[in-house]
Amino acid sequence: MSSIAILGIGSVMGLALLPQPALSGQTGSAPLVRHVATLRTARAVHTATTLPSGQVLVVGGMADGGGSRFRPTGSLVEPRSGHTATLLPDGRVLFVGGVGRGWTFLRSAELYDPETGRSELVGSMMVPRESHTATLLADGRVLIIGGHSGRRENMRVYASAELFDPRTRRFEAAGTLAIARHKHDALRLADGRVIIIGGADHTDRVYYATTEIYNPRTQAVEQGPSMANRRYKIAGTSVLLPNGDVLVSSGAQVAELLDVGRWTFREVSGRFPAAYRFAAAAPLADGSVLITGGYSDGNRNTAGVWRFEER
Hints:
Number of domains: 1
CATH architecture: 6 Propeller
Distance between the termini: 48 Å
CATH class: Mainly Beta
Protein backbone atom coordinates (compact mmCIF):
# COMPACT_ATOMS: atom_id res chain seq x y z
CA MET A 1 0.00 0.00 0.00
CA SER A 2 1.14 3.53 -0.68
CA SER A 3 0.70 6.10 2.06
CA ILE A 4 -1.02 9.48 1.70
CA ALA A 5 0.02 12.47 3.75
CA ILE A 6 -1.06 16.08 4.10
CA LEU A 7 1.39 18.86 4.87
CA GLY A 8 0.57 20.68 8.07
CA ILE A 9 -0.80 24.07 7.09
CA GLY A 10 0.90 25.74 10.02
CA SER A 11 4.30 25.04 8.49
CA VAL A 12 3.53 26.80 5.21
CA MET A 13 4.32 30.44 4.52
CA GLY A 14 1.83 32.25 2.30
CA LEU A 15 4.62 33.85 0.30
CA ALA A 16 2.27 35.01 -2.44
CA LEU A 17 0.35 37.13 0.03
CA LEU A 18 3.30 39.33 0.91
CA PRO A 19 2.90 42.82 -0.59
CA GLN A 20 5.35 43.42 -3.40
CA PRO A 21 6.54 46.80 -4.68
CA ALA A 22 5.98 47.60 -8.33
CA LEU A 23 9.01 47.12 -10.55
CA SER A 24 10.66 50.36 -11.57
CA GLY A 25 10.23 51.25 -15.19
CA GLN A 26 7.14 49.06 -15.64
CA THR A 27 4.16 51.00 -16.94
CA GLY A 28 1.04 50.33 -18.95
CA SER A 29 -1.28 47.32 -18.82
CA ALA A 30 0.87 44.57 -20.42
CA PRO A 31 0.89 41.21 -18.60
CA LEU A 32 4.07 40.61 -16.63
CA VAL A 33 5.91 37.78 -14.86
CA ARG A 34 8.25 38.87 -12.06
CA HIS A 35 10.23 37.23 -9.29
CA VAL A 36 8.57 37.82 -5.90
CA ALA A 37 9.98 35.38 -3.34
CA THR A 38 12.10 32.30 -2.66
CA LEU A 39 10.98 28.90 -1.40
CA ARG A 40 12.71 27.51 1.68
CA THR A 41 13.64 24.45 -0.40
CA ALA A 42 14.52 24.29 -4.10
CA ARG A 43 12.19 21.73 -5.68
CA ALA A 44 10.66 20.35 -8.88
CA VAL A 45 7.84 17.90 -9.76
CA HIS A 46 5.83 19.32 -6.85
CA THR A 47 2.31 20.75 -6.63
CA ALA A 48 1.00 24.20 -5.71
CA THR A 49 -2.57 24.52 -4.45
CA THR A 50 -4.47 27.70 -3.62
CA LEU A 51 -6.21 27.32 -0.24
CA PRO A 52 -9.48 29.01 0.78
CA SER A 53 -7.41 31.24 3.08
CA GLY A 54 -5.57 32.65 0.05
CA GLN A 55 -2.30 30.97 0.99
CA VAL A 56 -0.56 28.72 -1.53
CA LEU A 57 0.34 25.24 -0.32
CA VAL A 58 3.52 23.89 -1.98
CA VAL A 59 3.91 20.16 -1.40
CA GLY A 60 6.35 17.38 -2.26
CA GLY A 61 8.44 16.94 -5.38
CA MET A 62 12.15 16.35 -5.73
CA ALA A 63 13.73 18.72 -3.23
CA ASP A 64 17.28 19.86 -2.57
CA GLY A 65 17.51 19.51 1.20
CA GLY A 66 14.99 20.81 3.71
CA GLY A 67 11.92 18.95 4.92
CA SER A 68 8.32 19.34 6.00
CA ARG A 69 6.05 17.86 8.63
CA PHE A 70 3.25 15.65 7.38
CA ARG A 71 0.39 13.82 9.07
CA PRO A 72 -0.77 10.42 7.77
CA THR A 73 -4.25 10.34 6.28
CA GLY A 74 -4.67 6.89 4.76
CA SER A 75 -3.18 4.64 2.09
CA LEU A 76 -3.70 3.82 -1.55
CA VAL A 77 -4.51 0.25 -2.53
CA GLU A 78 -1.56 0.20 -4.96
CA PRO A 79 1.73 2.08 -4.60
CA ARG A 80 2.12 4.48 -7.51
CA SER A 81 4.10 7.46 -8.76
CA GLY A 82 3.79 9.49 -11.95
CA HIS A 83 0.00 9.25 -11.61
CA THR A 84 -2.61 11.97 -11.82
CA ALA A 85 -4.80 13.15 -8.95
CA THR A 86 -8.12 14.87 -9.71
CA LEU A 87 -10.45 16.42 -7.15
CA LEU A 88 -14.04 15.44 -8.00
CA PRO A 89 -17.10 17.62 -7.27
CA ASP A 90 -18.11 15.37 -4.34
CA GLY A 91 -14.76 15.89 -2.60
CA ARG A 92 -13.23 12.53 -3.45
CA VAL A 93 -9.92 12.29 -5.32
CA LEU A 94 -9.38 10.14 -8.41
CA PHE A 95 -5.86 8.67 -8.78
CA VAL A 96 -5.13 7.31 -12.26
CA GLY A 97 -2.26 5.25 -13.68
CA GLY A 98 1.38 5.88 -12.96
CA VAL A 99 4.20 3.47 -12.14
CA GLY A 100 4.00 0.77 -9.49
CA ARG A 101 6.42 -1.72 -7.97
CA GLY A 102 9.26 -2.87 -10.23
CA TRP A 103 8.57 -0.19 -12.85
CA THR A 104 5.19 -1.70 -13.63
CA PHE A 105 3.07 0.75 -15.63
CA LEU A 106 -0.44 0.82 -14.22
CA ARG A 107 -3.89 0.69 -15.82
CA SER A 108 -5.58 0.88 -12.45
CA ALA A 109 -7.39 3.80 -10.84
CA GLU A 110 -8.55 4.49 -7.28
CA LEU A 111 -11.07 6.73 -5.57
CA TYR A 112 -9.85 8.21 -2.29
CA ASP A 113 -12.21 9.66 0.30
CA PRO A 114 -10.49 12.32 2.47
CA GLU A 115 -13.27 12.05 5.04
CA THR A 116 -12.58 8.39 5.80
CA GLY A 117 -8.96 8.13 4.64
CA ARG A 118 -9.92 5.06 2.58
CA SER A 119 -9.19 4.35 -1.07
CA GLU A 120 -10.78 1.74 -3.33
CA LEU A 121 -10.05 0.44 -6.80
CA VAL A 122 -12.42 1.34 -9.62
CA GLY A 123 -12.43 0.28 -13.27
CA SER A 124 -9.10 0.18 -15.12
CA MET A 125 -8.00 2.18 -18.16
CA MET A 126 -7.69 0.49 -21.51
CA VAL A 127 -3.90 0.96 -21.49
CA PRO A 128 -1.35 1.68 -18.75
CA ARG A 129 -0.25 5.32 -18.62
CA GLU A 130 2.33 7.58 -16.99
CA SER A 131 2.98 11.27 -17.82
CA HIS A 132 -0.64 11.62 -18.97
CA THR A 133 -3.11 14.33 -18.01
CA ALA A 134 -6.46 14.13 -16.24
CA THR A 135 -8.93 17.00 -16.72
CA LEU A 136 -12.20 17.43 -14.87
CA LEU A 137 -15.01 18.21 -17.31
CA ALA A 138 -18.06 20.37 -16.65
CA ASP A 139 -20.32 17.29 -16.33
CA GLY A 140 -18.11 15.68 -13.66
CA ARG A 141 -16.38 13.16 -15.90
CA VAL A 142 -12.56 13.07 -16.11
CA LEU A 143 -10.72 13.16 -19.44
CA ILE A 144 -7.45 11.17 -19.60
CA ILE A 145 -5.14 12.11 -22.47
CA GLY A 146 -1.85 10.79 -23.82
CA GLY A 147 1.01 9.61 -21.65
CA HIS A 148 3.25 6.61 -22.12
CA SER A 149 4.07 3.10 -20.98
CA GLY A 150 7.42 1.29 -21.11
CA ARG A 151 10.93 2.68 -20.85
CA ARG A 152 13.68 3.65 -23.28
CA GLU A 153 13.47 1.63 -26.52
CA ASN A 154 10.27 -0.05 -25.28
CA MET A 155 8.46 3.22 -24.60
CA ARG A 156 5.13 3.78 -26.32
CA VAL A 157 3.58 7.25 -26.30
CA TYR A 158 -0.19 7.43 -26.73
CA ALA A 159 -2.46 9.64 -28.81
CA SER A 160 -5.56 8.04 -27.32
CA ALA A 161 -8.02 9.56 -24.85
CA GLU A 162 -10.29 7.93 -22.27
CA LEU A 163 -13.17 9.20 -20.15
CA PHE A 164 -13.82 8.16 -16.55
CA ASP A 165 -17.42 8.43 -15.33
CA PRO A 166 -17.73 8.55 -11.52
CA ARG A 167 -21.32 7.29 -11.78
CA THR A 168 -20.37 4.03 -13.52
CA ARG A 169 -16.80 3.99 -12.10
CA ARG A 170 -15.54 2.91 -15.54
CA PHE A 171 -13.32 4.18 -18.34
CA GLU A 172 -14.30 4.26 -22.00
CA ALA A 173 -12.51 5.20 -25.22
CA ALA A 174 -12.92 8.89 -26.04
CA GLY A 175 -11.17 9.74 -29.29
CA THR A 176 -7.63 10.22 -30.56
CA LEU A 177 -5.25 13.17 -30.80
CA ALA A 178 -3.54 14.08 -34.05
CA ILE A 179 -0.14 13.79 -32.30
CA ALA A 180 0.86 11.21 -29.70
CA ARG A 181 2.28 13.14 -26.75
CA HIS A 182 3.30 12.84 -23.12
CA LYS A 183 4.59 15.32 -20.50
CA HIS A 184 2.08 17.82 -21.88
CA ASP A 185 -0.61 19.84 -20.14
CA ALA A 186 -4.40 19.91 -20.58
CA LEU A 187 -6.88 22.48 -19.36
CA ARG A 188 -10.64 22.94 -19.58
CA LEU A 189 -11.55 26.19 -21.31
CA ALA A 190 -14.42 28.44 -20.26
CA ASP A 191 -16.61 27.02 -23.04
CA GLY A 192 -16.11 23.44 -21.78
CA ARG A 193 -13.66 22.29 -24.43
CA VAL A 194 -10.17 21.09 -23.43
CA ILE A 195 -6.91 22.48 -24.77
CA ILE A 196 -3.96 20.05 -24.93
CA ILE A 197 -0.65 21.94 -24.78
CA GLY A 198 2.88 20.98 -25.82
CA GLY A 199 4.44 17.70 -24.76
CA ALA A 200 7.06 15.44 -26.35
CA ASP A 201 7.56 12.29 -28.40
CA HIS A 202 9.11 9.06 -27.07
CA THR A 203 12.66 10.40 -27.35
CA ASP A 204 12.03 13.58 -25.33
CA ARG A 205 14.24 15.31 -27.91
CA VAL A 206 11.27 16.29 -30.08
CA TYR A 207 8.83 18.47 -28.18
CA TYR A 208 5.98 20.58 -29.34
CA ALA A 209 4.69 24.12 -29.63
CA THR A 210 1.41 22.81 -30.99
CA THR A 211 -1.95 22.57 -29.23
CA GLU A 212 -5.07 20.54 -29.89
CA ILE A 213 -8.68 21.23 -28.90
CA TYR A 214 -10.88 18.39 -27.63
CA ASN A 215 -14.67 18.65 -27.67
CA PRO A 216 -16.18 16.43 -24.92
CA ARG A 217 -19.65 16.43 -26.54
CA THR A 218 -18.49 15.05 -29.89
CA GLN A 219 -15.07 13.61 -28.89
CA ALA A 220 -13.70 15.40 -31.95
CA VAL A 221 -10.20 16.88 -31.90
CA GLU A 222 -9.05 19.86 -33.94
CA GLN A 223 -5.83 21.78 -34.28
CA GLY A 224 -5.42 24.72 -31.91
CA PRO A 225 -3.16 27.77 -32.08
CA SER A 226 0.59 27.18 -31.79
CA MET A 227 2.80 28.72 -29.13
CA ALA A 228 5.95 30.68 -29.90
CA ASN A 229 8.01 28.21 -27.83
CA ARG A 230 8.19 24.42 -27.70
CA ARG A 231 7.42 23.09 -24.21
CA TYR A 232 7.27 19.77 -22.35
CA LYS A 233 7.25 18.56 -18.73
CA ILE A 234 4.60 21.21 -18.10
CA ALA A 235 1.65 19.33 -16.53
CA GLY A 236 -0.17 21.47 -14.00
CA THR A 237 1.45 24.75 -15.00
CA SER A 238 -1.25 26.16 -17.29
CA VAL A 239 -3.97 28.26 -15.67
CA LEU A 240 -7.36 29.48 -16.82
CA LEU A 241 -7.55 33.18 -16.00
CA PRO A 242 -10.74 34.97 -14.86
CA ASN A 243 -11.22 36.54 -18.31
CA GLY A 244 -11.07 33.14 -20.04
CA ASP A 245 -7.53 33.50 -21.36
CA VAL A 246 -4.93 30.79 -20.65
CA LEU A 247 -1.50 31.29 -19.09
CA VAL A 248 1.18 28.71 -19.99
CA SER A 249 3.83 29.34 -17.39
CA SER A 250 6.69 26.84 -17.67
CA GLY A 251 8.85 24.83 -20.05
CA ALA A 252 10.54 27.90 -21.61
CA GLN A 253 12.26 31.07 -20.40
CA VAL A 254 9.13 33.09 -21.09
CA ALA A 255 5.50 32.47 -20.23
CA GLU A 256 2.85 32.73 -22.93
CA LEU A 257 -0.74 33.90 -22.87
CA LEU A 258 -3.49 32.50 -25.09
CA ASP A 259 -5.84 35.35 -25.98
CA VAL A 260 -9.03 33.34 -26.45
CA GLY A 261 -10.78 36.20 -28.24
CA ARG A 262 -8.05 36.47 -30.86
CA TRP A 263 -7.19 32.74 -30.63
CA THR A 264 -3.44 33.46 -30.62
CA PHE A 265 -0.58 33.10 -28.17
CA ARG A 266 1.75 35.92 -27.23
CA GLU A 267 4.81 35.99 -24.98
CA VAL A 268 4.54 37.64 -21.57
CA SER A 269 7.03 40.29 -20.44
CA GLY A 270 9.61 39.12 -17.91
CA ARG A 271 12.02 36.18 -18.25
CA PHE A 272 12.84 33.24 -16.04
CA PRO A 273 16.55 32.56 -15.41
CA ALA A 274 16.16 29.20 -17.19
CA ALA A 275 13.55 27.12 -19.02
CA TYR A 276 12.24 25.50 -15.85
CA ARG A 277 10.35 22.21 -16.20
CA PHE A 278 8.16 20.32 -13.75
CA ALA A 279 7.29 23.59 -12.01
CA ALA A 280 3.89 24.26 -10.40
CA ALA A 281 1.40 27.11 -10.76
CA ALA A 282 -1.52 28.23 -8.61
CA PRO A 283 -4.13 30.94 -9.33
CA LEU A 284 -4.68 33.60 -6.66
CA ALA A 285 -7.91 35.35 -5.71
CA ASP A 286 -6.89 38.63 -7.36
CA GLY A 287 -6.46 36.97 -10.78
CA SER A 288 -2.68 36.74 -10.62
CA VAL A 289 -0.82 33.40 -10.72
CA LEU A 290 2.00 32.13 -8.50
CA ILE A 291 4.65 30.03 -10.29
CA THR A 292 7.01 27.99 -8.10
CA GLY A 293 10.12 25.86 -8.52
CA GLY A 294 11.08 23.59 -11.39
CA TYR A 295 14.39 22.36 -12.72
CA SER A 296 16.65 23.56 -15.52
CA ASP A 297 18.43 21.73 -18.36
CA GLY A 298 21.35 21.27 -15.97
CA ASN A 299 19.03 19.33 -13.61
CA ARG A 300 19.27 22.06 -11.00
CA ASN A 301 16.17 22.71 -8.94
CA THR A 302 15.17 26.30 -8.24
CA ALA A 303 13.61 27.82 -5.14
CA GLY A 304 12.35 30.76 -7.18
CA VAL A 305 8.80 32.08 -6.89
CA TRP A 306 7.35 34.26 -9.66
CA ARG A 307 4.05 36.06 -10.02
CA PHE A 308 2.08 36.64 -13.20
CA GLU A 309 -0.22 39.62 -13.17
CA GLU A 310 -2.08 41.92 -15.52
CA ARG A 311 -0.59 45.39 -15.07
